[in-house]
UniProtKB/TrEMBL annotation:
InterPro entries: NRAMP_fam (IPR001046). The keyword Transit peptide does not apply. GO terms for cellular component: plasma membrane. The lineage of its organism: Bacteria, Bacillati, Actinomycetota, Actinomycetes, Micrococcales. This is Mn2+ and Fe2+ transporters of the NRAMP family. It holds the Pfam family Nramp. The chain crosses the membrane at residues 31-55, 61-85, 106-132, 138-155, 167-188, 203-226, 247-267, 296-328, 349-366, 372-395, 407-426. It comes from Arthrobacter subterraneus. Keywords: Membrane, Transmembrane, Transmembrane helix.
Length: 435
């Protein structure tokens, strides 16, 4: 009987996957998926805007900041993936061990995130689509963009999401990186320097590029996408690291490409990029130089980037909400339900999916939903340092075997991330309150 209990415990701590993790470089490439989803989800309008502003205002001087920002997201995502595979617990289960205050905060943040993000990203998608199809109706494109995300996630499963995101990343690569290559072959006379520097007046801009506070909750979806992929147990940690590293290399290339395009087209011209409309303006300038087909191609790439930021959160944050509901139900029943039971078919998953799609449509008809945006800004500004502190605690705890805990370098880097985001978050709070 005791032997049966031991065997059962081992199976629960490291469930069977039905396959073995790949060892060779070539086979690992075929398994890439969850990392590509979380990285592509993060390369939305926000990152594109910040990279465009950096290129337009400072040429290539801040390329290092783009790369550092990708490295920070890689550090945090790897920690989230390592926690899940080494401990067998989802991100939320680990986060809950910090206390109910942490769970309550994440719950409130998730609810507000659904409303504000659910309105903002379809609106950006509509902005790009109206530029692609002049004369079309903005609010109709916004509604259709949200509905498309809802339908794809409601009727699809993780495998479909993975394939759709791979196609969108491919479109982004061909159009955005291709546009940068065209620019490089037609480079102007501007004097660019790749040497890391901090141009006068660029400090706050650098923090914005590195930080990317908006939408950072999507990083926490990584453990759920690993779970959906079927990676379970410590043996998958090397594959997870390969997956997430490859993904952020790809997305760093996208961000660098946008910086190159903006630098060549706008640096030194006196033109600036501000707001989501700046993305369309950048494509217009590109079209003036290389023709309408080039403009159209770049806009398609920008739209693909924005739509990944619809599909990813519509699926991933719904998983977090379903896990939150499961955790609360377990607390009330005084039981522990396996996270294996979470799926896209859960009622709570679909309730949040609907929450993120339909109520936000009302915000499209309001000029300035200040209260909701302010609340989202306040909660979002303090999320990243809390996430970093949480990972510092979890990945140095006894819940993770010594071999998979943080090393000194990881701990130092996470502390630096905390300090960076505390500074950046303070600035976001001031902007939210004053704005």
């Amino acid at each position: 009987m005791e032997r049966v209990d031991v065997l059962k415990s081992q199976l629960e701590s490291e469930p069977a996957t039905g396959n073995e993790p790949p060892k060779s470089f070539g086979r690992r490439l075929k398994f890439i998926g969850p990392g590509l989803i979380v990285a592509a989800t993060g390369v939305g309008a926000g990152d594109f805007i910040m990279a465009s502003i950096a290129g337009a205002d400072y040429g290539w001087a801040l390329m290092w900041a783009v790369l550092v920002g990708a490295a920070i997201k890689l550090l945090l995502s790897e920690g989230i993936g390592r926690w899940y595979l080494a401990s067998g617990q989802t991100f939320l289960q680990g986060w809950h061990s910090l206390g109910w205050w942490a769970t309550g905060y994440l719950g409130i943040y998730t609810v507000i995130f659904g409303i504000v993000y659910g309105a903002a990203v379809p609106a950006v998608s509509a902005l790009v689509l109206t530029a692609l199809f002049p004369g079309s109706i903005f609010w109709l494109w916004a509604v259709l963009s949200g509905l498309a995300g809802f339908i794809f996630v409601w009727f699809g499963r993780f495998g479909f999401l993975e394939k759709a995101m791979t196609v969108l990343v491919g479109v982004m690569f061909v159009t955005v990186v291709g546009s940068a290559i065209v620019i490089m072959f037609n480079i102007g006379q501007s004097d660019y320097s790749l040497a890391p520097s901090v141009p006068e007046g660029s400090f706050i801009r650098i923090l914005g590029i590195i930080g990317g506070v908006g939408g950072t909750i999507t990083l926490t979806c990584y453990s759920y996408w690993i779970h959906a992929k079927g990676w379970k147990g410590k043996k998958w940690i090397p594959m997870m690291r390969f997956d997430i590293t490859s993904a952020y290399i790809i997305t760093a290339i996208f961000a660098v490409s946008i910086l190159i395009i903006a630098a060549e087209l706008l640096f030194g011209t006196g033109q600036t990029i501000e707001g989501n409309e700046g993305l369309v303006g950048l494509a217009d300038t590109y079209g003036e130089r290389f023709g309408d087909p080039a403009r159209w191609a770049l806009l398609v790439g920008i739209w693909a980037a924005v739509f990944t930021s619809i599909l990813g959160p519509w699926h991933g944050i719904s998983y977090i909400f379903a896990d939150l509901v499961r955790l609360i139900q377990d607390h009330r029943r005084k039981t522990v339900t396996s996270h294996e039971s979470i799926s896209e078919k859960d009622t709570s998953f679909r309730i949040y999916l609907a929450w993120m799609t339909f109520p936000p449509m009302l915000l499209l008809f309001l000029e300035r939903p200040l209260l909701m945006v302010l609340a989202y800004g306040v909660l979002g500004a303090i999320f990243m340092p809390l996430l970093s502190i949480g990972l510092l605690y979890l990945l140095n705890s006894k819940k993770v075997e010594p071999a998979y805990r943080n090393g000194k370098i990881n701990n130092v880097l996470l502390v630096l991330v905390v300090l960076l985001f505390l500074f950046l978050g303070g600035g976001e709070l001031v902007d939210a309150i004053s704005g």
